[in-house]
Amino acid sequence: MELTKFWKGKKVFVTGHTGFKGSWLCIFLSYLGANVTGYSLKPKFKKNLYDLANVKKILKKSIIADVRDYNKLFKEIKNSKASILFHLAAQPLVRQSYNDPKETFDTNFTGSLNILECIKNIKNIKTSVIITTDKVYDIKKNKIFKETDQLGGYDPYSSSKVCVEFMFESYVKSFFKNNANQILATVRAGNVIGGGDYSPDRLIPDIYRGLSKKKLYLRNPLAVRPWQHVLEPVSGYLILAEKIHTPKIKKLKQNWNFGPNISSCKSVKYIFNYFRKELKINLITKKIEKNIKKPETSILRLSNFKARKFIKWKPKWSLNKSLDKILEWNKKIKYKKPLDVCKEQIVEFLRS
Ligand SMILES: NC(=O)c1ccc[n+]([C@@H]2O[C@H](COP(=O)([O-])OP(=O)(O)OC[C@H]3O[C@@H](n4cnc5c(N)ncnc54)[C@H](O)[C@@H]3O)[C@@H](O)[C@H]2O)c1
Q1: Is residue 276 part of a domain?
Q2: pTM
Q3: What is the number of the ligand 1 atom nearest to the C-alpha of 50?
């Protein structure tokens, strides 16, 4: 991986820096020597990686503000003098999107529209990576999705991200096609797991929360997901940004999957049983009857062929290794600073 030298001293703007993936991205960037400005709302939940790892301390500036506020966003991106931008800020939970579809569309669509408009108007931004999701694919068929497959979202979250993809395409074709100085890409990653995720309605945080309650409800035990350690897509975003920042590779303004190998696409039940064995716990699980009003995809697998071929990214950690790293993270933060545990795992990941 050629990450180290390139990032040293680079000015980078990250939205969603107070979130799970955003915190890991900021820690990674700061480890590589980048000057990071973060822009997002404050963490939504009391327990969160951003505060635990004191991510604010390693940033050049942390701005607590809304991506729906165009004027503020514009001013802060301009002031940051950043040349590289990662847009992660979003309402990212499928079930929450059923509870509040308006907030989800507003944040994900309007927020991304504001970002694209800022990039168009701030010429200092040379490289932009817009984070969408693996759930943008039209999942009628049980297949391995590649970037050119048809898009289509059923639930409000997926649909809001499909809207972002279409809007992105329109902006690229309309405003950036002949602009070799500004390169943009969207990235679609699988189900991201790792130490420091405390979000509701996500399997591994739910397992840890279930430990104290001795009871866990598995929503959809047979659902198969492209699980991957958070360092996998985050390293993919960094490699991609580095590649497209180099003027030689102009044609890479596109969409990219960052999915795990197919062997890591396992069921919810598989993950649950792994933790049950490793944590030696006796959780009671109860399958909830499929709620037809709030369907979630049952099988979702992503092809990572394109990223492997064109930017030489490939998954490094197997699913079991990734699960071990989560167990390790949760054990180590009992006696070490979470920021140091994250950095240790980044170093190990880079050496893998
Ligand atoms: N975690 C996953 O499995 C996964 C998988 C695929 C894609 N993604 C995408 O990755 C990105 C990050 O996801 P995450 O898991 O870290 O989520 P998260 O909920 O931990 O973080 C979301 C971030 O967005 C910010 N945010 C939300 N609304 C905002 C607003 N109106 N203005 C400014 N900031 C706002 C939050 O403050 C937070 O910093 C999202 O775009 C998500 O859709 C996540």
Answers
A1: no
A2: 0.95
A3: 39
Any domain includes 282:
no
Query: CATH no. for residue 242?
Result: 3.40.50.720
- Of ligand 1's listed atoms, the one at least distance from the Cα of 48 is 20
Domain range spanning residue 128? Answer: 4-191+229-259+301-318+338-351
* Long-range contact pairs involving 205-209 (C-beta distance under 8 Å, separation at least 24): 207/271, 207/272, 207/275, 207/283, 208/330
Residue nearest ligand 1's atom 24 by CA:
89
Closest CA to 256 of 194, 198, 303, 196: 303
Ligand 1 atom at minimum distance from 42 CA: 37
Read off the pLDDT of residues 304-336 as tens digits, 9 standing for 90 and up: 999 999 899 999 999 999 999 999 999 999 999
Which parts of the chain have pLDDT scores under 50? 289, 291-292
Phi, psi of 44 (to 5 degrees): -80, -30
pLDDT score at 225: 84
Is residue 63 domain-resident? yes
Query: In this structure, what token pair is assigned to residue 245?
Result: 């920042």
Give me the pLDDT at residue 216, please: 76
Ligand 1 center–CA 209 separation, angstroms: 20
Question: Is residue 249 in some structural domain?
Answer: yes
Residue 92 Cβ contacting ligand 1 at under 6 Å: yes
Considering its fold, how many domains does the chain have in total?
Answer: 1
Per-residue pLDDT reduced to its tens digit, 230-280: 999 999 999 999 988 875 655 555 899 999 988 888 988 899 889 888 877
Q: Cα separation of 222 and 122, whole Å?
A: 46
> Ligand 1: does its nearest atom lie under 6 Å from the Cβ of 37?
no
Check residue 253 and give its pLDDT: 55
Query: In the structure encoding, which two tokens stand for residue 108, read together?
Result: 């994900």
Q: Is the CB of 188 under 6 A from ligand 1?
A: no
18: Cβ below 6 Å to ligand 1?
A: yes
